[in-house]
Amino acid sequence: xxxxxxxxxxxxxxxxxxxxxxxxxxxxxxxxxxxxxxxxxxxxxxxxxxxxxxxxxxxxxxxxxxxxxxxxxxxxxxxxxxxxxxxxxxxxxxxxxxxxxxxxxxxxxxxxxxxxxxxxxxxxxxxxxxxxxxxxxxxxxxxxxxxxxxxxxxxxxxxxxxxxxxxxxxxxxxxxxxxxxxxxxxxxxxxxxxxxxxxxxxxxxxxxxxxxxxxxx
Length: 217
Ligand code: GRF
Fold this sequence. Notes:
Elements: E1 10-15, H1 20-30, E2 37-43, H2 49-56, E3 61-63, H3 72-85, E4 90-93, H4 102-107, E5 112-116, H5 130-138, E6 142-149, E7 159-166, H6 173-196, E8 200-203, E9 206-209
Parallel strand pairs: 1-2, 1-4, 2-3, 4-5
Antiparallel strand pairs: 5-6, 6-7, 8-9
Helix pairs in contact: 1-6
Bound molecules: 5-O-phosphono-beta-D-ribofuranosylamine.
5-O-phosphono-beta-D-ribofuranosylamine binds at residues 17-21, 50, 94-95, 115-117, 127-128, 181, 184.
């Protein structure tokens, strides 16, 4: 590798289900909008469709099911070992259901991003479609998604990016979820690019985005 070619950062993606956000990450890479390579996809479930998406893109996959470990700490140790083996610089939680053990968060401080289908801090906690259903039940007129840094407190880490969508009078959980999901697919690869390119500063629970330098533009 020549000195002029910066190494492409290695990314791990943690999934549990459908994997549409994982697919959006691969799309971002293919379009040249996200400068990363997915070196590892970890699923908490062996039957997650996201694993097929990972394999179709040639990514290494691992199933680390928390229920096959005696404790969350032990599952966390297995995750840390896999991440270290894959030499990842950052981690994306893309529809990952289990709560990560604090040891994983400590091993990758400010290097783990999660996407949540509400405008945090509203409707924190709970997996999709719970936040979308809660937004409908509360009668809010605007909802959306949030990409945030993962800390030991669930859905409470520094906010990196948010996108709002209208809540329509005739919305169902499905129609609102679909509108929010389209924004998740746009925002997660973008926020990962900000993190991996070193544009994000994180301090006192807030994040700042540095302008693109002329060399990067
Ligand atoms: C997304 O709505 C995400 O915000 C939430 O779970 C859903 C996962 O969808 N955490 P997918 O597996 O990425 O399609």
